[in-house]
Amino acid sequence: MEKFFIRGGIPLHGTVYISGAKNAAVALVAATILCDEPCTLENVPAISDITKCLDILRSMGAVVRMERDGVIYIDPRSINTTEVPYKQAVTMRASSYFLGTLLGKFHEAFVPMPGGCDLGDRPIDQHLKAFRALGATDKVVRGANYVKADKLIGNQIFFDMVTVGATMNAIFASVRAKGQTIIENAAKEPHIVDVANYLNSMGADIRGAGTDVIKIRGVEYLHGTTYATIPDQIEAGTYMVAAAATKGDVVIANVIPKHLESITVKLRKCGVNVEENDESVRVWVDKPLQNTTVKTQPHPGFPTDMQPQFSTLLTMAYGTSRVTEEIFNNRFRYAAELRKMGADISIEGGKVAIIQGVDHLSGAPVQATDLRAGAALVIAGLAADGMTEIGNIHFIQRGYERIDEKLQKLGADIKRVIVPENDSVEMSG
Ligand code: EPU
Fold first, then answer.
1. 315 with 343: CB under 8 angstroms?
2. Eight-state DSSP code of residue 364
3. Which Gene3D superfamilies match (predicted)?
């Protein structure tokens, strides 16, 4: 078992380079199934969720080759099954993308129920609604979703809520369907636009990605392409908050500043300086942090995937802050861990955190409860007095490429240590 040991209290300084976006890259890898020729993906982050997606492709017969760091060649022509193996599917949300891509290409998919971070109930009813609109049927077989269609025909799809996953899957299932599909109330996240651009670079006809109406005219053939993943908005936001929490001065490079606007606005409200350049942002602090209110929203609103990190910053800001989680119904499990570090944070009705700023956090042994909660604890550890020991760091490695090395380059005292299993404290009750 691996843990992070962080000696906190050191302001971060220097430049950090942001990797390709996890939530774009997992979708791009799955989308490659739709292609009729080999593709090369660039700027793919080295994270465990990508390893699992690539393993799924290999297990289905695709040729997958790492050409060099971040560059992956995928030949989907040798795929010989429409069944996704249980082991990889159940640990990852992105496995649901294989439903849409296999259905779109082979008119059939068998995918074990997707896993992913435990953020509350995460149904896929809207994904299935989209498939049904295009002519597919679905049933649950042996704990897996089985979808099938004799043919897929374009249709109008209206989502009951804004959902990233279902928007992706509706695009995947309709990109080779007959005729036109119109997706309304579509998600507008940067990774939706990235996936549409990737498919269009293969010859797909997708218009309107990034707005709430996406129009897709089905095509019969998709040709090979080479495509670079966009930078990770959430990884960038995490380093922005880490710079602020440690009262440092950091240039976050290889980013699209426009994607970071909602985070930038909230940091400025807290008294943090943010300077936007063409492909980088500089974040530094020269005065005490102030409280603010945050409400998570679909893009372009404040991203739920930044909520734990930002709440952690607010535990060290003067006054009372209020953070409302509007996307998931159980995304404050990390609050109990922050309390162990001296944070004053209480949760009302599962959706609202009331945070009373304290002068400083103090290091403690804590456990990551999911990916972004883990990132939040890293930020807390970097800012806290003394030593923080973070367990369950495999969650963090799902989505942050070499986070310990990147932080070390910024001057942090963080070590990844292999700890024998029996050194962990058993909980009961
Ligand atoms: N929802 C439904 N029915 C559906 C689909 C979604 O009720 O059929 C609900 C969800 O339960 C949730 C809301 O709609 O309350 C939004 O869910 P969405 O579908 O947008 O989320 P997702 O596709 O499951 C992706 C990211 C998450 C990110 C959310 C929101 C990937 C692989 N995952 O999840 O990323 O939080 O969008 O932006 O792209 C993370 O990276 O840490 C992470 C959790």
1. yes
2. -
3. Enolpyruvate transferase domain
CATH number of 22-228: 3.65.10.10
Q: What is the mean pLDDT of residues 380-396?
A: 97
Q: Is 117 a catalytic residue?
A: yes
Q: Residue 69 — very low, low, confident or very high, per pLDDT cuts 50/70/90? A: very high
Residue ranges matching CATH 3.65.10.10 in the chain: 2-19+231-418, 22-228
Ligand 1 centre distance from Cα of residue 271 (Å): 31
- Closest CA to ligand 1's atom 7: 123
Could you tell me which CATH number the domain at 2-19+231-418 has?
Answer: 3.65.10.10
DSSP alpha helix (H) spans, 187-300: 190-201, 233-245, 261-269
Would you give the DSSP letter of residue 348? Answer: E
Q: What's this model's pTM, rounded to 2 decimal places?
A: 0.96
Where does ligand 1 bind, in terms of residues with CB under 6 Å? 22-23, 26, 93-94, 117, 121-127, 161, 163-166, 187, 304-305, 327-328, 371-372, 399
Average pLDDT (54-79) is 97
